[in-house]
Design brief:
Elements: E1 2-3, E2 9-10, H1 12-15, H2 26-33, E3 39-40, H3 52-59, H4 74-84, E4 91-94, H5 97-108, E5 114-119, H6 124-131, E6 135-140, H7 149-156, E7 162-166, H8 178-187, E8 193-197, H9 211-216, E9 222-227, E10 240-244, H10 247-255, H11 264-275, H12 277-300, E11 304-305, E12 312-316, H13 321-329, E13 333-334, E14 336-337, E15 346-350, H14 354-367
Helix pairs in contact: 3-11, 4-11, 5-6, 5-10, 7-8, 12-14
This protein binds pyridoxal-5'-phosphate (PLP).
Pyridoxal-5'-phosphate binds at residues 44, 96-98, 122, 166, 170, 197, 199, 227, 229, 235, 240.
Length: 370
């Protein structure tokens, strides 16, 4: 147990957690740059906002902030079940999909449990297991910024309790191909739960693998995570969900969350967003085109850019990315400098408006002379 100066004894696993590498706050960026027009390219939000139907739903009489919202998210789970072709009993809705990462960790892990994931990674795939005293093994990406399938297969042979993989992969960008996903599925051992985090699913190119569909027919236990924060543009409302292979996983995960975890605005907004799939698809289409343009421009600067099936790009700067990010902040541009050991030259930049992307490209050209 770790005693603190105030005489309290903290949970040592929680007290020792590494900080979550969150995007810099806009007020800090304004203070640092003296500019009002901040290019917010650190948190993979949708620069186009959200469907107008969402704003209509929030302005309607259906929004009753004085009432507790449905703790079971019955209407939203029903809408998701119909959309995804699964039984609603298999779905748990979270205060963002990040809450579902915590819930699945709490549902399965105890002190000393083994967890497998990749590096660089989405921070919470490591932080939530560590909070429970689990041991986390992280497999590095390959030299060409891809999944290291042979290493994954070897590590999965020891049957970690949870395997966390995001595909498309945050922060790197690529998605598992259908063949590679099948290799991963074949490597799942009895007693292991594969958690496939598809937060960026909607941004993958047409024809990309649908992890949920592949897992449905696999016969394996699984949890697929998706979110309304990215393509649907609801990051500020906090709503994401888990689709589980069986109701028992969903039941235990639901027990691991707080009862009224998804607020009334989030539930209404998510349903409205699902009803306006056309808005989301059109937005995704524009951002994919912009992603290709920005990737090509970074390549033209001579920077190494990972393949991306997401709404961000991961690339290698010519010097420490934290120093470059600090210089960009001074110009009112927020990006994320990668800090995991071995990746300190890598930067992740969200695809923003074309104007913001052009600001980033111009600044990077100066910071990374050939
Ligand atoms: C891979 C991945 N999973 C989960 C999340 C959490 O998203 P949210 O809690 O907003 O649904 C994120 C957010 O950036 C992410 O990149």
């Amino acid at each position: 147990m770790s005693a603190s100066p105030n005489g309290l004894t903290f949970n040592p696993h929680v007290a020792a957690l590494p900080p979550y590498n969150a995007g810099t706050n806009v007020a800090i960026a304004r203070a640092a740059s003296g500019r009002e027009d901040i290019a917010r390219l650190a948190s993979n939000e949708n620069p186009e906002g959200c469907s107008p139907k969402v704003m209509q739903a929030l302005a309607s009489a259906a929004f009753e902030p004085w009432r507790y919202a449905d703790p079971a998210c019955t209407a939203l789970r029903g809408a998701l079940a119909a959309r995804l072709g699964v039984d609603a009993a298999h779905i748990v809705v979270g205060n963002g999909s990040e809450e579902m990462i915590a819930a699945v960790s709490r549902a399965l892990l105890v002190q000393g449990s083994q967890v497998l994931t990749v590096v660089p990674s989405f921070g919470l795939h490591e932080i939530e297991p560590l909070a429970l005293g689990a041991r986390v093994t992280k497999l590095p990406m390959t030299a060409d910024c891809g999944f290291d399938l042979p290493a994954l297969e070897r590590a999965m042979a020891s049957a970690p309790r949870i395997v966390f993989l995001s595909s498309p992969w945050n922060p790197v960008g690529p998605a598992l191909s259908a063949a590679d996903l099948q290799r991963v599925l074949r490597a799942v051992q009895p007693g292991s739960l594969l958690v496939l985090d598809e937060a960026y699913f909607e941004y993958a190119d047409p024809g990309s693998v649908d992890g949920l569909e592949a897992l449905k027919s696999s016969g394996l236990p699984y949890v697929v995570l998706r979110t309304f924060s990215k393509a649907y543009g609801l990051a500020g409302l906090r709503v994401g969900y888990a689709v589980c292979s069986d109701p028992e996983i969903a039941r235990v995960m639901a027990s691991a969350k707080t009862p009224f975890n998804v607020n009334a605005a989030a539930q209404l907004a998510a349903i409205a967003a699902l009803e306006d799939e056309a808005w989301m698809r059109a937005s995704v289409e524009r951002l994919r085109t912009e992603r290709k343009r920005v990737a090509a421009a970074l390549g033209a600067l001579g920077l190494r850019v990972a393949d991306s099936q997401t709404n961000f790009l991961f690339f290698e700067c010519r010097s420490d990315s934290a120093e470059q990010a600090a210089a960009l902040l001074g110009q009112g541009i927020i990006v994320k400098a990668w800090r995991e050991a071995g990746y300190e030259r890598f930067m992740r930049a969200t695809i923003g408006s074309s104007q913001d992307n052009d600001r980033l490209l111009a600044a990077l050209a100066v910071l990374n002379p050939v």
